[in-house]
Amino acid sequence: MKSRLLTQRELEALAEAGSLQGLISSLAKSVYHKSVEMALVRASGLECIVQALHMDLIDTLGKAQNFYIDDARRMVALALRPYDIHNIKTILRGLARNVAPAEIVPALLPVGELKYAVLTDLARAPGPRAAIDMLVSMNEPIAKPLIELRLQRPGAEVHEMELALDQWHYREAMDYLKSAPPAAEILGEALKLDADIENLLSMLRFVREPEERRHLQERLGGDLTDLLVTAGRLQPAQLVRLGNLDSIEAAVESLETTRFRPAIQTGMQAYKQTGRLSEFETHLKRFRLSWLSKLIYKDTLGIGVFLGYLGLKINEINNLRWITHGINLGLNAGDIKAELEFAA
Questions:
Q1: Distances in Å between the alpha carbon of 132 and those of 50, 77, 127, 140?
Q2: By the 8 A CB rule, do 18 and 5 touch?
């Protein structure tokens, strides 16, 4: 499956398609041909490509899951649980804003344990509370953190539900890993990396927006620890100290001795030019992609192969989405190529 991923040269050639129709024609001659043919029956132009990429990702990850059994399948399920979290967040946000089910469903990626039929039923619920009640009635484990939050804070907002889901995911995963076979160690490291990046980005936002930080500290009794998903390699005390700093420069300096130093420093250089906090996210995710891709060779008979492939496949889809939107916006090929991401 890895051999079927598009090469850098192929992606750059697609960036030179010149038009959406040209891009569709090129994709129809690639490994995406089946998805493009199916999408063309229902849509054209931008929507055709979006649907084709969506269908291909669901189909690919669905097939990959079926390669595994027993402990390995359990580890794969944990690796894919973020998609269940993404889907529930998408549904709760949509319902809270009275978005029609027809607009919510296309944004879902049913590749985790929550199947398409369940997700579409949830998207048709009259509101977030009803959707959560439906999950409870189905005895879905993912309902647990939402019910617990409701008991603690009956009027909890959607962003609080999202944090509760993330914290539950990492907590449950780490509990499983305590008694998991040795082969799960790589999965544990991947989860710690994701937790560290998520926590870092949250704390950097508080450094950039001190007013928001002070507001949250008043609500939480002065402690930012409750906003962390879990402890990865970066300890809560270190992260909270970072979050309480008053300048991005000081925050970057505080990470000098961590494995994120190169990514953070590169992100800082870009931040100085653009002023966008998203620069740090871009470079941290680039670091993550490089780390994941190396697992294919580091853990050749274990979960590392799946994690590495998953990272590369998601990155390919993101590159294709960027090419699609870049062409649609009329950007020149050079600017589109400059923003493509590849594993180092």
A1: 29, 21, 9, 10
A2: no
Write the DSSP string, 174-189: HHHHHSS-GGGHHHHH
The CATH code for residues 72-180 is 1.20.1690.10
Q: Give 188-230 pLDDT, tens digit per residue.
A: 999 999 999 999 999 999 999 988 888 888 877 768 898 999 8
- Angle (CA) 153 157 159, round 5°: 120
CATH of domain 1-67+306-344: 1.10.132.50
For 72, 151, 308, the CA distances from 16, given in Å and listed in that order, are 41, 54, 28
Which token pair is 327? 């062409």
Query: Which runs of consecutive H residues, i.e. helices, occur in the chain?
Result: 8-15, 20-27, 33-40, 45-65, 70-96, 101-104, 116-123, 128-137, 144-152, 158-178, 185-208, 210-220, 236-243, 248-253, 261-274, 278-298, 303-328, 333-338
pLDDT tens-digit profile of 309-327?
999 999 999 999 999 999 9
Listed in order, the ranges of the chain carrying CATH 1.20.1690.10 are 72-180
Instruction: Say yes or no to pLDDT of 11 above 90.
Output: yes
